[in-house]
Amino acid sequence: KVDYDVCSNYGNWLYSAGIGNDPRDNRKFNMIKQGLDYDGNGDYIRLWVPELQGIKGADIHTPWALSSAALSQAGVTLGETYPRPVVTAPEWSRHIPQRPGGSPHPRGRRGPAQAPARHKDRGIDFYFSRKKDA
């Protein structure tokens, strides 16, 4: 038996892409967070984007944030061997930790991104209770 609902399936894909109907204001699909959550080491990207194979670990999700030395070592030249980003959403910045002085910090995280501190102590009951001011 195949359970397939065309409208529901397309609706879910649009919703996931951030262009579907969403009751929350200003929701955007965060591809950096999704990459870190589901491909923490960047293996999937390395499989399909051979230009980035020289970038180690999770840094592959944000090659434009790497130092010129790190890019050179990986054989990547932004704008030549790999394109510069067209857009960098402000929401992505929390997934690209910065060192003092503004240079990107190499990420050692290999698993899911950590929840923001303000949501840390909520637990599952928060999402099912009527009172949401916690």
TrEMBL record:
Cryptochrome/DNA photolyase FAD-binding domain span: 2-93
Cofactor info, note text: Binds 1 FAD per subunit.
GO BP, one annotated term: photoreactive repair
Record bears the keyword Protein biosynthesis: no
Binding site for FAD: 3-5
Segments crossing the lipid bilayer: none
Residue ranges with Low complexity bias: 99-116
Cofactor requirement: FAD
GO molecular function: damaged DNA binding; deoxyribodipyrimidine photo-lyase activity; FAD binding
Identification of the protein by name: CRYD protein
Gene coding for it: Crydash_1
